[in-house]
Amino acid sequence: MSNRTNISSGSEWEPKIGYSRAVRIGNSVAVSGTTAPGETVADQTRAALATIEAALVDAGASLQDVIRTRIYLRDVSQWQDVAAVHGEIFGEIRPATTLLGVNALIDDALLVEIEADAIIS
């Protein structure tokens, strides 16, 4: 079995809930659902993707290695704002992506949550 590396962001919630920001096993990295504060859904998307990128770097990966993202959006009518930021950040990487409308996230101030999976080539 490949070695497992748990990556922490230092969040107080990681030990309380029992999760890691990201987990690397072999050349695969899974990044947990990531939220971030911000005034708009676009601001929150940009900040969440920056946190995801930092977790990937800590795991020895990069945005170039991302093969899938999953986006959970509280107000699905704002999908174009989220998609524009996602497209700007990922550009030609173009991971497989799912965008879902959800009724709620863990905090009412949060508008978007993003997960990512990467395979280090």
Automatic annotation (TrEMBL):
Pfam families documented for this protein: Ribonuc_L-PSP
InterPro entries given for it?
RutC-like_sf (IPR035959), YjgF/YER057c/UK114 (IPR006175)
Cited Gene3D superfamilies: RutC-like
CDD domains annotated for this entry?
YjgF_YER057c_UK114_like_6 (cd06154)
- PANTHER family noted in UniProt: BLR7761 PROTEIN (PTHR43857), YJGH FAMILY PROTEIN (PTHR43857:SF1)
Question: In its UniProt entry, what is this protein called?
Answer: Enamine deaminase RidA, house cleaning of reactive enamine intermediates, YjgF/YER057c/UK114 family
Provide the species name: Rhodococcoides kyotonense
